[in-house]
Amino acid sequence: MPTARDALLDAALAALARHPWSAVRMADLAAAARVSRQTLYNEFGSKEGLARALVRREADAYLDGVRRLLAAREAPASLAAVAEWTVVRAGDRPLLRALLTGAWTEGMPRPRAARPGARPAPVPAQRRADGGPPAPGELLAAAAWCAGERWAAGCELALRLALSHVVAPALPPGGQCAEPDSWRPMTPTMTKLIETIFSVETRSPRKTMP
Question: Where in the sequence does UniProt note compositional bias of the Low complexity kind (predicted)?
Answer without folding.
Answer: 110-126
